[in-house]
## 1
Amino acid sequence: MRFKNFVYWLLGERLGRLTVVTWNWLWGNSEPSEPEQAVSNAEQSLRTMQESVDKLTQAVEIQVQNYREAEQYYRQKVEEYQELQGKAKVYKSSGNTEQARLTMIQVVQLEKLLPQLKQNVENAEKYVTDAKEKLMREKEKLESYKTELANMQSVQKVNEALSQMAEVNNNYKIDSAKSQFEAAKEVVDNKQAEVEAFYDVSKNSSEKMDEQFEQMDMEDEVSRRLEAIDSEDTSHQNQGKNR
């Protein structure tokens, strides 16, 4: 069992066809000319059917003409038969026995011929009826196929448009470009966040250093003053001793 037939059997015709087309597209095995060739074959088949219908139409017209000629010939012979019967009676009544006899021979011969002629007319009529019915069926089929061909051509145009869109997407790598754009945007956003964080850290560090400097100045001032107090106390003590 071929791969395509197996997929159709496993997934169903519609889903299977989609799976096979997708697989072929991914592996570069798609055959865009195959549907075009199918439509071209359908057009050629339709032209062949149209030619056959035209020939069948001509054949039916010939059969109709033959039927009319056979029917007309039969009616002529019926009229001739009736006329001969009348003449035979006239000849018989007038005492022209020989002519009456010859005329009656023609009547008898026509009597034998008329059933065959009638059968020919009936057969011709039947053939014409059957041929007309067949011609009508073929014309209906042809019209149906014309509609189907128009639908196939419309579907093929849609398929070509979709194929071109898919080809454009593939050639210009729109999805890849979108991914690259998003990646670039992410890099910029990350850099911005990094700079802002660095700025915050730098700002906090400066403030902490200022606070440390202020704390160091305060401790120096306190130490200096305490030392000054100690110096004053020592000076007062020395002065007391001198008294």
Note: The chain has two domains: 50-171, 173-237.
## 2
Amino acid sequence: MRWLVGDLQGCAREFDRLLATIRFDPARDELYCVGDLVNRGPDSLAAARLWRDVGGRGVIGNHEVYALLARSGRWPRKHDTLEALYAAEDGPALLDRLRALPPLLYLPGGDGFAPAWVVHAGLDPRWEDLAEVARDLDAPAHDDDWLESPEVSFATRVRCCTAAGERSRYDREPAGCPAPFEPWDAHYRGETLVVHGHWAWRGYYRGPRTLGLDSGCVYGGALTAWCQEEDRIVQIPAMG
């Protein structure tokens, strides 16, 4: 089975329980994280190691961008929970795995189930040919300049935007997006389902062509996972 899991943000215990609940087998199953594996939560190092150990894949999120740029000295450190990850012997290798993640990923469908696009935050309304966009976004070296590029920033940070791709910094409930901004998915016209995270205030939801998996585990909500083949949701409550 192919599983996509919402924002972990260092919630390693819930992640471990989720894998047990779905009886995840790395020899048989696939795991994709929709970004923000690390930071804010209690154990970013354990979450990143578990993701690595089960062959995890996914897309890059804004907290990966922060972790990498803060580690390189490009950005100043804020209040974060990354010290154990930075200090670990395998920390550099884990950070390299996070840096290698693409901003936009296509997961093909199969017998009886539909394909999906995966992005951490959302899509720029001006992105028409998503296959071409995905190739172009991932093609450059994933250096610090790439992490700060407008395209990666959009894919990892957007919530509300205009049809012209102007972003708002608003981050609460979708209904509160200040005019002329709307939730990014209001501008999406594609037929393929887009699975994303990043919007904890929105929580888990299913729209006509979008699926949001950030249910705010790090804030006391749940950790949400979706099985692509079965179109099935599994949620693990935050453990405190």
Note: Helices lie at 12-21, 44-53, 62-72, 83-87, 91-99, 130-138, 144-147, 150-157.
## 3
Amino acid sequence: MQVLRMFDWPPVWLVLFVALAWLTAMPVASGAAATFLHFAGWATIGLGAGLMGLAAREMARAATTIVPGRDPTRLVTRGVFAWSRNPIYLGDLMILAGLSLIWQSWIGLALVPVLGRVLARRFIEDEEARLRRMFGAEAEAWMGRVRRWL
């Protein structure tokens, strides 16, 4: 079981879901439609990666951890955290969605909310409980005004 815990990280889950999307790709669009899907996919990936980068920068500025399961030293509520409590996880979902568009993996697109649920159950719920314990009313107020995803 310890070996499985070593692999229980959000990027590992993302890679697993990306592999499923790739394996289920069934391109049917061609021409302008395929070009549009390709453009939309790359734009979605770019936005997701940018969101992740902005979140990591805010956490670095606050000198707090980005590693799931570790206790944060500060509650980060500014920047991208002012409109999403989980911009890094949201970026994961956007990357999966973007790759699914590029590969025309309709099953991959259907897996986006499934990955969201996995991330929520395995990581977000624990992180939010930790923030409530550590930062009390300040965390409650932030969670009350900022949605989990968007």
Note: Residues 106-145 form the longest helix (40 residues).
